[in-house]
Amino acid sequence: MQDYSNRFQDHWMCFATVLDLPQDISQNIYRILSTAYNESQRAYHTCQHIVECLNLLHDIREHLHDPIAVEMAIWFHDVVYDPKSSENELRSAELMKDICSNILNEVRLNKVYAWIVATQHHQPTDDADLQYLLDIDLAILASEKQRFEQYEQQIRFEYAWVESTLYQTKRQAVLQHFAQMQPLYQTSYFQQYFEEQAKLNLQAAIDC
Protein backbone atom coordinates (compact mmCIF):
# COMPACT_ATOMS: atom_id res chain seq x y z
CA MET A 1 0.00 0.00 0.00
CA GLN A 2 3.03 2.30 0.26
CA ASP A 3 2.84 3.08 -3.45
CA TYR A 4 -0.77 4.17 -3.05
CA SER A 5 0.18 6.35 -0.07
CA ASN A 6 2.82 8.09 -2.17
CA ARG A 7 0.44 8.60 -5.07
CA PHE A 8 -2.23 9.81 -2.63
CA GLN A 9 0.19 12.48 -1.43
CA ASP A 10 1.20 13.42 -4.97
CA HIS A 11 -2.44 13.82 -6.00
CA TRP A 12 -3.10 16.02 -2.98
CA MET A 13 -0.09 18.24 -3.68
CA CYS A 14 -1.33 18.78 -7.23
CA PHE A 15 -4.86 19.58 -6.05
CA ALA A 16 -3.58 21.93 -3.35
CA THR A 17 -1.69 23.79 -6.06
CA VAL A 18 -4.85 24.08 -8.17
CA LEU A 19 -6.69 25.43 -5.12
CA ASP A 20 -3.78 27.78 -4.38
CA LEU A 21 -3.74 26.66 -0.75
CA PRO A 22 -1.15 28.08 1.66
CA GLN A 23 1.33 25.39 2.64
CA ASP A 24 0.23 25.17 6.27
CA ILE A 25 -3.43 24.72 5.32
CA SER A 26 -2.55 22.16 2.65
CA GLN A 27 -0.42 20.15 5.06
CA ASN A 28 -3.11 20.25 7.75
CA ILE A 29 -5.81 18.96 5.39
CA TYR A 30 -3.45 16.32 4.04
CA ARG A 31 -2.79 15.05 7.57
CA ILE A 32 -6.51 14.80 8.24
CA LEU A 33 -7.14 12.92 4.99
CA SER A 34 -4.13 10.64 5.28
CA THR A 35 -4.89 9.75 8.88
CA ALA A 36 -8.52 8.98 8.03
CA TYR A 37 -7.84 6.80 5.00
CA ASN A 38 -5.20 4.80 6.90
CA GLU A 39 -7.45 3.87 9.84
CA SER A 40 -7.23 0.25 10.94
CA GLN A 41 -10.90 -0.64 10.30
CA ARG A 42 -10.45 0.09 6.60
CA ALA A 43 -9.38 -2.30 3.86
CA TYR A 44 -11.20 -1.00 0.78
CA HIS A 45 -12.08 2.58 1.79
CA THR A 46 -8.41 3.56 1.88
CA CYS A 47 -5.85 5.63 -0.01
CA GLN A 48 -6.03 2.97 -2.73
CA HIS A 49 -9.70 3.71 -3.41
CA ILE A 50 -9.12 7.46 -3.50
CA VAL A 51 -6.14 7.11 -5.85
CA GLU A 52 -8.14 4.84 -8.16
CA CYS A 53 -10.98 7.37 -8.20
CA LEU A 54 -8.61 10.26 -8.90
CA ASN A 55 -6.92 8.37 -11.73
CA LEU A 56 -10.34 7.96 -13.36
CA LEU A 57 -11.19 11.59 -12.69
CA HIS A 58 -8.20 12.70 -14.72
CA ASP A 59 -9.36 10.47 -17.59
CA ILE A 60 -12.79 12.14 -17.77
CA ARG A 61 -11.98 15.65 -16.48
CA GLU A 62 -12.73 17.24 -19.86
CA HIS A 63 -16.35 16.06 -19.57
CA LEU A 64 -16.96 17.90 -16.29
CA HIS A 65 -18.51 21.31 -15.71
CA ASP A 66 -16.86 21.74 -12.30
CA PRO A 67 -13.88 19.38 -11.95
CA ILE A 68 -12.68 21.07 -8.77
CA ALA A 69 -15.96 20.30 -7.02
CA VAL A 70 -15.91 16.70 -8.26
CA GLU A 71 -12.34 16.23 -7.06
CA MET A 72 -13.12 17.71 -3.65
CA ALA A 73 -16.04 15.31 -3.35
CA ILE A 74 -13.75 12.39 -4.16
CA TRP A 75 -11.24 13.41 -1.51
CA PHE A 76 -13.85 13.65 1.22
CA HIS A 77 -16.61 11.18 0.27
CA ASP A 78 -15.26 8.41 2.53
CA VAL A 79 -13.22 10.47 4.97
CA VAL A 80 -15.46 9.22 7.80
CA TYR A 81 -15.86 5.46 7.65
CA ASP A 82 -17.27 3.19 10.32
CA PRO A 83 -18.53 -0.12 8.86
CA LYS A 84 -21.16 -0.27 11.61
CA SER A 85 -22.59 3.18 10.87
CA SER A 86 -25.22 4.30 8.36
CA GLU A 87 -24.18 7.94 8.64
CA ASN A 88 -20.71 7.85 7.09
CA GLU A 89 -21.60 9.92 4.04
CA LEU A 90 -23.43 12.55 6.07
CA ARG A 91 -20.59 12.78 8.57
CA SER A 92 -18.06 12.94 5.74
CA ALA A 93 -20.02 15.79 4.16
CA GLU A 94 -20.17 17.63 7.47
CA LEU A 95 -16.43 17.26 7.99
CA MET A 96 -15.77 18.49 4.45
CA LYS A 97 -17.91 21.56 5.09
CA ASP A 98 -16.08 22.32 8.34
CA ILE A 99 -12.66 21.99 6.75
CA CYS A 100 -13.39 23.65 3.42
CA SER A 101 -15.63 26.53 4.50
CA ASN A 102 -12.82 29.02 3.86
CA ILE A 103 -11.58 27.28 0.71
CA LEU A 104 -14.71 26.89 -1.43
CA ASN A 105 -17.37 29.48 -2.06
CA GLU A 106 -20.81 28.81 -0.62
CA VAL A 107 -22.34 27.52 -3.85
CA ARG A 108 -19.53 25.06 -4.47
CA LEU A 109 -19.38 24.06 -0.80
CA ASN A 110 -23.08 23.19 -0.73
CA LYS A 111 -22.80 21.34 -4.04
CA VAL A 112 -19.93 19.15 -2.81
CA TYR A 113 -21.81 18.52 0.44
CA ALA A 114 -24.88 17.29 -1.46
CA TRP A 115 -22.77 15.14 -3.78
CA ILE A 116 -20.98 13.40 -0.91
CA VAL A 117 -24.33 12.60 0.71
CA ALA A 118 -25.52 11.23 -2.67
CA THR A 119 -22.75 8.62 -2.70
CA GLN A 120 -24.64 6.70 -0.01
CA HIS A 121 -27.49 5.51 -2.23
CA HIS A 122 -26.29 6.11 -5.81
CA GLN A 123 -29.69 7.21 -7.08
CA PRO A 124 -30.18 8.35 -10.70
CA THR A 125 -29.63 12.07 -11.17
CA ASP A 126 -29.84 14.69 -13.92
CA ASP A 127 -26.72 16.43 -12.60
CA ALA A 128 -24.03 15.47 -15.14
CA ASP A 129 -21.09 16.05 -12.79
CA LEU A 130 -22.73 14.01 -10.05
CA GLN A 131 -23.35 11.24 -12.57
CA TYR A 132 -19.61 11.07 -13.22
CA LEU A 133 -18.83 11.15 -9.50
CA LEU A 134 -21.19 8.25 -8.78
CA ASP A 135 -19.87 6.27 -11.73
CA ILE A 136 -16.28 6.81 -10.59
CA ASP A 137 -17.22 5.59 -7.12
CA LEU A 138 -18.62 2.35 -8.62
CA ALA A 139 -15.87 1.85 -11.18
CA ILE A 140 -14.29 -0.81 -8.95
CA LEU A 141 -17.08 -3.15 -10.07
CA ALA A 142 -15.60 -3.12 -13.58
CA SER A 143 -11.99 -3.73 -12.56
CA GLU A 144 -9.91 -6.59 -13.87
CA LYS A 145 -10.41 -10.00 -12.24
CA GLN A 146 -7.59 -9.87 -9.69
CA ARG A 147 -8.50 -6.39 -8.49
CA PHE A 148 -12.19 -7.28 -8.24
CA GLU A 149 -11.39 -10.33 -6.13
CA GLN A 150 -9.14 -8.19 -3.93
CA TYR A 151 -12.01 -5.70 -3.56
CA GLU A 152 -14.37 -8.46 -2.42
CA GLN A 153 -11.81 -9.59 0.16
CA GLN A 154 -11.35 -6.02 1.35
CA ILE A 155 -15.07 -5.54 1.86
CA ARG A 156 -15.24 -8.81 3.80
CA PHE A 157 -12.44 -7.58 6.07
CA GLU A 158 -14.34 -4.38 6.82
CA TYR A 159 -17.37 -6.46 7.79
CA ALA A 160 -15.42 -9.11 9.71
CA TRP A 161 -17.71 -8.48 12.67
CA VAL A 162 -20.68 -9.88 10.68
CA GLU A 163 -21.30 -13.64 11.01
CA SER A 164 -20.34 -15.50 7.83
CA THR A 165 -23.77 -16.78 6.73
CA LEU A 166 -25.42 -13.43 7.35
CA TYR A 167 -22.64 -11.64 5.51
CA GLN A 168 -23.01 -13.89 2.47
CA THR A 169 -26.76 -13.25 2.39
CA LYS A 170 -26.38 -9.49 2.68
CA ARG A 171 -23.49 -9.33 0.22
CA GLN A 172 -25.37 -11.37 -2.35
CA ALA A 173 -28.27 -8.93 -2.07
CA VAL A 174 -25.93 -5.99 -2.72
CA LEU A 175 -24.34 -7.68 -5.71
CA GLN A 176 -27.76 -8.64 -7.10
CA HIS A 177 -28.92 -5.05 -6.72
CA PHE A 178 -26.03 -3.74 -8.80
CA ALA A 179 -26.29 -6.56 -11.34
CA GLN A 180 -29.96 -5.79 -11.95
CA MET A 181 -29.49 -2.05 -12.47
CA GLN A 182 -30.18 -1.17 -16.11
CA PRO A 183 -27.90 0.53 -16.77
CA LEU A 184 -25.50 0.28 -13.86
CA TYR A 185 -23.61 3.42 -14.83
CA GLN A 186 -25.25 6.76 -15.50
CA THR A 187 -22.86 8.30 -18.03
CA SER A 188 -22.39 7.17 -21.62
CA TYR A 189 -18.62 7.02 -21.03
CA PHE A 190 -18.89 4.49 -18.23
CA GLN A 191 -21.66 2.60 -19.99
CA GLN A 192 -19.41 2.21 -23.03
CA TYR A 193 -16.17 1.28 -21.27
CA PHE A 194 -17.18 -0.19 -17.89
CA GLU A 195 -20.73 -1.58 -17.99
CA GLU A 196 -20.07 -4.94 -19.64
CA GLN A 197 -17.10 -5.88 -17.44
CA ALA A 198 -18.92 -4.80 -14.29
CA LYS A 199 -21.89 -7.03 -15.09
CA LEU A 200 -19.54 -9.96 -15.78
CA ASN A 201 -17.74 -9.42 -12.47
CA LEU A 202 -20.99 -9.13 -10.55
CA GLN A 203 -22.47 -12.26 -12.07
CA ALA A 204 -19.30 -14.22 -11.37
CA ALA A 205 -19.39 -13.13 -7.73
CA ILE A 206 -23.07 -14.00 -7.43
CA ASP A 207 -22.48 -17.46 -8.91
CA CYS A 208 -19.67 -18.30 -6.48
UniProtKB/TrEMBL annotation:
This is Metal-dependent hydrolase. Keywords: Hydrolase. The lineage of its organism: Bacteria, Pseudomonadati, Pseudomonadota, Gammaproteobacteria, Moraxellales. Gene3D superfamilies: Hypothetical protein af1432. SUPFAM superfamilies: HD-domain/PDEase-like. GO terms for molecular function: hydrolase activity.
